[in-house]
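INPUT
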Amino acid sequence: MLDDTIIAVSTPLGFGGLGVVRISGHSALPIAKKIFHPKKTRQKIPSRHPVLGYLLDSSSNERFEEAYLTFFPKPHTYTRENLVEISCHGSPVILEEVVRLGIKAGARHANPGEFTLRAYLHGRLDILQAEAINDLITAASFKQAKISFRQLDGSLSKTTTVLRQHIIQLLSQIEASIEFPDEGLSISPKMIAKTLQRAENTVTKLISSYDLGKSLSEGLLLTITGRANVGKSTLFNTLLEKDRAIVTPFPGTTRDYLQETIKIRDALFTLTDMAGIDTPAHPVEKEGIKRGKKLASAGDGILLVFDASRKESHEDLILLEKFQDKKVLLLFNKSDLPVKMDRKKIKHLHKNIPSLTISALKGTNLDRLKEMIFTQFVPTQTGSEEVVLHLRQKLLFEDILSCLKKTKRMLEEGYSEEIYVEEIRKIIPIVGQLTGEIQDEDVLTRIFNRFCVGK
Amino acid sequence: MDYDVIVVGAGHAGCEAAYVASTIGLKTCLVTIHLETIAQMSCNPAIGGLAKGQLVREIDALGGLMGRLADETGIQFRLLNSSRGGAVQAPRAQSDKALYRLTMKKWLEDTPNLTLFQGIVSKILTKSNAAVGIETLDGYKLRSRAVIVTPGTFLNGLIHIGLQSYPAGRANEPPSILLSQNMKSLGLETFRLKTGTPMRLHKNSIDWTGFTPQPGDKIPVPFSYRTKKPLKNRVVCHIGYTNSKTHEIIRQNLSFSPLYGGKITGIGPRYCPSIEDKVVKFPQRHRHQFFLEPEGLDTSEIYVNGLSSSLPLDVQEKLLASIPGLDKAKILRPAYGIEYDAILPTQLLPTLETRSIANLYLAGQINGTSGYEEASAQGLMAGINAALKIQEKSPFILCRNEAYIAVLIDDLISRGIEEPYRLFTSRAEYRLNLRMDNADKRLTEYGYALGLVNSEDYKDYQEKQARLKRVMFFLEKKKFPVENGESISLKDFLKKPEGKWENVIEYVPSDMFLTDEEKRFCESEIKYEGYIKKQEKEIARITKLDGEKIPRGIAYTNVPGLTREVIEKLEISSPRTIGEAKKIPGVTPASIINLHVAISIHRKQKAKNVSRGTQKRNRNQKRK
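OUTPUT
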């Protein structure tokens, strides 16, 4: 139950100049007073004003650290409960001691995310905002932090709310025509289709923004692939700027696959270096190829490497065909050697696949390559600034999209209103799961406000 | 003890309540101010409509009277939404008002165990917070085991025409002022509602040429599953429109409107606004539709559906004069608005018994509803439950997924209301299953078990179900050829939006020919099958959640996110399960979520403690 007072270190683990311990709950202040004494004895603890004092071990009455204490009375706090923050030196030993003493004084160690959970349960945040806070804390890049902050501010909630309003408006129009058949309130299928399309566009945009969100938080999965000995591992090492993969002049050096994360501008990429796609000589290599292929097809994009110092082979072209409908960046490697490959012909055959000539060994065109990786694989955002950062959110938006699409299909196939309206009705609780609010009366309210009905 | 059950008020709720209580076998007395106005249709001369039509069928399936009476006295029948699917089709009929009244009176007079009694009830007699009888204005006392109060708009009724007002329950009928005071003194919280009725015109003073006729259906659809005789349309309704001149007159005279002049404080229904409301709220509209509906066969009165008003009589005359065809219309009865007391329905149990006074049941407009059908449904349920309680049987409570009756009652008692409540199909979560074509399938078994459906009707019902089952099986098995040598089952064909019974009839053997009623059932069952199955799963999931136990001795004050009001309510009712907590009025869905989270956390912690405990024990054992 949430009737107890919780305590935890709020700054990251490790040594830092400053560390903060937070206490939240009904007895936050009494507990804090047991372990903290103001420098000016008898000083009352004011609200929202730091007080200088000492931390002391009550059992030995020994002062062990100088610290600032700030008391935030409820409800205007992060958790909407009484909140105490103790700032002291950022040594893990000291911070842990503060928490230990706090627990001794009656607090309980907070579970992960419990401060945010309390904020949510007290109605301080909606689910989207609660998730955003977690993202803000764990943001891997500044851009992600900015997006998280925007969600905290409620901008995804706002877009979702607008979407909800559109759905409710549509629903109320259809329901009004059903409930009041004598009042000539029918809405044309064309109008319904138009509204559905508009909603679909919004949702599609949000879903596709998930990839951008993912590239910013988890990293996009890129696979380096190509025939044996075209320089995949060299490229892998060059992009990592360290010698991670073993490189030899012999084909089949890389047997298993290797993964490392790199950062280009604001985006994270998880690079996979895999065995060359040729007839494997060794069972381990065979397994490596199998796993690598699986990764390549499941990943977000492919860096396909050709050895430009050799003439193009049949196998090369087959690879190109094979990855046609994936996001591919074609790299003509080994430009430090005389080029024998007919690059023009290949480019002509696959006009839509971007390509670049590089030398992974010498680092030629490396900056251009990073630039191209970014533009080719990081989804560009058009218009909407909202980014869906969570799989949970994405799945819910996908549910909404499937309802919208099904409605549209049923509308086209001539189903009766009361059937396809079931699909639209389903959307409202899904939106509720996104924003955490549930309301039922909205559709009827909307009907009465918009239509003059009633005999 | 004089009676088992006393019903106060013989409107649509009271008649139904008295009928079922006495049919179940209890000695019942129905007390009314005027025996002449039993089952009076105070407003429009029609029964049914969307959601209401389904409600009447449910009342009928349970053995109530309204469906049979509407068929018996109907003079024009229409099936609404006939171009749409079965779930949103509903019957509506114009009734002969006088005939409706007289027939109901006759039927009730002929009902065994039932006594009709004329009197004005001034007081509910109580003993240690339980109703034990009634007292009339002349001091006459009747004792009973249960009292069902169905006073309609009579509780402290106040009629407004223009800025004039006078106490009345209905035009020129005395209101129940003492009873209202009595209800308040019993601790029941009341609030003020408002409704209105349009003027009645003399049919010979109307120039009918200017209006579009709206005839009844070629093949009238009855309300009752038991109606066997063919129904006939005997009258035609007409459609007309107001115009900008009418609206101008209304705007000029708003200061004489009790509503806009601030005299009326009660809340009126948004779905049934007065004409002055329509003009004010929708200034962009240049005309408003109205219907001219005959009030019966032996009367010249025409009901002007859509022009309800509480403007002064001279303004009513002026606005009619602005409408071509009504310019010479003679007003026989003026339109008026009426304010009345209603009881906050959140004070009721799902049986419609009040929480604070045992054996006191309320039904109809007193619970904040509007509409004859809504009243009738509540009367039926209150009558059944009062009888069951006296017989010491468990109450009869329907679920939202099995009847509109349940949607109605559950909405009232758990959500409360702010305006007169009307049922809509969109209020039902499981609309595709709550249909006029399957109300018998949903509810007849209950009606029979309660003793309200006689064995003859029950046999008919069983035969119908058996036949439908056979036909459904046949439709699933029987294939017929479509293009490119392929074939599909008749059922799969009917599932398509364009699939109609007429298209498959040539493949159906003659012993499986269906009535229109049965066709509607089969088509709906087939077309909605996928959705209904999904909904059944969802219902099962919710039922599971509802069954979740709330730990005994839970400290609600420690559950985050609960308001003091909700905590108080939970503490008083101490629900055993989430489902019971949900049913407590004023406990919001959001607080249910918070409660659920708290219980899960509680359980997890308990599990942890238990496992810790076991570990400790194990350790101790090891040490030994």
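end of record. The first strand of chain B starts at residue 3 and ends at 8.
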